[in-house]
Amino acid sequence: MKKTLSAAFVVAALTLTSACGGGGDRPSADDVAAQLKKSAGSAITDKQADCAAKAIVDSDLSDEAVKAVAENDTDYKPSDEDTKAQGDAATEIGKCITASTPAPSATTPAP
Fold first, then answer.
1. pLDDT, tens digit, for every residue of 21-42?
2. What pTM value is reported for the model?
3. Which backbone phi and psi does 78 adopt, to 5 degrees?
4. Whole-angstrom Cα distance, residue 108 to residue 95?
């Protein structure tokens, strides 16, 4: 049950924050993880938040979309490309929620 709630939270956070944001550099996985941990509280573990953050930062989401996640910008409106990238990112984030799944690595092939 907790894994389902955790996955739902992270996907909801990605969807809500991928919803006007400005430009700028891509936030680090640490920045994104800090926001996920703050927003989720005890709903996800630090390991899950770190893994989900890496998946978000390593995804095809634009810098602006990743920045919106890191800043919990609920007013962000995603581009069509970000909307498409959300599905792939959500798949990778879902893998992070299971205890047996390691953090995605740069060498993990795309599905």
1. 444 589 999 999 999 999 888 8
2. 0.68
3. -75, 150
4. 12
